[in-house]
Amino acid sequence: MTSPDLTRANIEKIADLFPTVVTETLDAEGQPTRAIDFDLLRQELSDHVVDGPQERYHLDWPGKRAAAFAANAPIAKTLRPVREESVDFDTTKNLFIEGDNLEALKLLQESYLGKVKLIYIDPPYNTGNDFVYEDDFAESSADYLARSGQKSETGDRLVANTEANGRFHSDWLSMMYPRLKLARNLLANDGVLVMSIDDNESANLRRVAEEVFGAESFVAQIAVQVNPRGRHLDRFIAKTHESLLILVRDPLSDAIAGVAKDGRMADEYDRSDARGAFRLLGLRNRNQSFNPSTRPNLYYPLYISPTTGEVSASQHDDFQVEVFPDAPDGTKTCWTWSRDKVAAEGEFLIAEPVGTDWRVFRKDYLHGADGEVAKTLVKSLWLDPEFSNDYGRRAVKNLFGKAVMDFPKSTELMKRLIDIACPPDGLVLDFFAGSSSMAQAVLEANAQDAGRRRFIMIQLDEKTAPKSEGSASGFDTISALSRERIRRAGHHVRASAGVLSTELDVGFRALRVDATNMVDVVASADSTTQAELAGVVDSVKTDRTDEDLLFQVLLESALDLTEPITVEKFEGHRVLAVADDALIACFSNELTDTLMREIAARHPLQAVFKDAGFANDAARINADQIFRELSPETEVRAI
């Protein structure tokens, strides 16, 4: 009943590929377990004899190995539903998870593997101060100095200014590294990762992200103007921007869409016909490396009607003016269209006289056949005023009446990311949710284009600053403030949607990372007396509900955590049915054969019960037999 052991899974994969590198070692309890001989594995992956560690280009820091281990190590945690904090719990497809995002990401590995279209994060910027995410591999300054070789055996420091140059960067990278490794697993093949960062760690964050995703997955570092006035406390240069680092899961996929043309770009479409506004683009390829020698099939004459300016691939009737794709100085180049394309789509060509010559153009329309506005590649500099921090604070103030968060990201900035990286049916994940600017942006984007995007927000139950507006407004934690923002944003979006309001999903299921629902039984069978047996029969903690158990089962079964759940009564027992009977669970005591028959008659894919719910072994065997007879396709489990 823990999250998946990714190390075990990786060992099994390597064993399938290279069985000769598999060996055995002893685990913490002294039991033999499968392991990998890394020297043999290095040899398998090398084209020469490997004598020892080889120098290579990579990012390294003290604590990196522990951070990698932290990503793979399983945890005995689960997600518990919190109905009273949720909105539209039974129907929503959105999630808000409160807890450490490293643990939450581990718990989501099965249910959302390869399903997330856009991951956006705004991690805590590393200013040299302590940060909240204190993972197990955190250590004292003294331990760090000794381990990293910055202190001699006599205790003297070997490197100057170690606090600034070493430990803070290392701890921050150790915090980010396992989270990025787990996040990569959740991205769809055409998924996009976007990370907000300032100058302190932008170079390191890019390096570590490229190591996790592959250097070829890096797309761009976009500069976003978030403070047009500049920060007056900066030295030498007043910084006005922050960076967006963008990576894709698969560099060969169409992961990022263009943005709709507007403003001056749209003004270029200054002509129109029955189909709509268009601009003229020259049909001649201006790149002189494309010429009759390199592209002979694209060097041919076109024929123009001097009366109408129409263009044809053949000479006939009024089409008598012959034109070749030659530059004004006589250099021979090529057309960008083939003869066949001209013949098929010649209606979109037009010729105009330029001096004594004729030039051939193609019509480039502002709107496509489906009415969608033409798009252009995203630029690497974003100066839009609505992307600034002032707009972020204004969005929060509009909902709460005051700026209860200091530096919330602009929802307009978040919507731009959604526009280029998340289609109307995509899933968005933000595991440093903060005040959930991204969640509000998803709701607003869906209201604008009738989309069905979903979100997963993850936020630590971090305390609000004692003298902050958020604390003064009664919010003890950032996660509480974040949930309230989604509630208010959802109410506002629905109120503004008019007739479409009933179609919008503005709710969320609130979940909380918590210890496993199962009792930690540390006593072995041999050390348990007869008198103690009754106390260790039930493996479930006494304070857990059947819904708590159900969500742990959903995680283990790799089912979406927003699947619809219906509660029914069978013979006085609460029965939970998930996703139209894909899974039926009953965690009651005193389970009967009649109850088993009623559930089996529904033919669920999975049927799950509490082990202690069976009166004895015979009752459990009878249950298996009933399902074998009535619903042999059902997987029957007991927890």
Please, could you describe this protein's structure?
- Helix 3 (64-72) packs parallel to helix 6, helix 11 crosses helix 12 (437-449) and helix 16 packs parallel to helix 17 (617-630).
- The chain is α/β, with parallel strands linked by helices.
- The model is unreliable at 137-141 and 147-165 (pLDDT under 50).
- It is built from 17 helices and 28 strands.
- A hairpin with a 2-residue loop joins strand 10 (271-273) and strand 11.
- It is 28% helix and 21% strand.
- It is globular and about 110 Å long.
Topology of this protein?
Elements: H1 6-17, E1 22-26, E2 32-36, H2 38-44, H3 64-72, E3 77-81, E4 95-98, H4 101-107, E5 116-121, H5 141-147, H6 162-186, E6 187-197, H7 202-213, E7 218-225, E8 241-248, E9 259-260, H8 264-267, E10 271-273, E11 276-282, E12 284-285, E13 302-304, E14 311-312, E15 321-323, E16 334-335, H9 339-345, E17 349-354, E18 357-365, E19 375-376, E20 381-382, H10 389-400, H11 411-421, E21 427-430, H12 437-449, E22 454-459, H13 469-472, H14 478-496, E23 509-515, H15 546-556, E24 565-570, E25 573-578, E26 583-586, H16 593-600, E27 606-609, H17 617-630, E28 635-638
Parallel strand pairs: 4-22, 4-23, 5-6, 5-21, 7-20, 21-22, 26-27, 27-28
Antiparallel strand pairs: 1-2, 3-23, 6-8, 7-8, 9-19, 10-11, 11-18, 12-16, 13-14, 13-15, 17-18, 24-25, 25-26
Helix pairs in contact: 3-6, 4-6, 6-7, 11-12, 12-14, 16-17
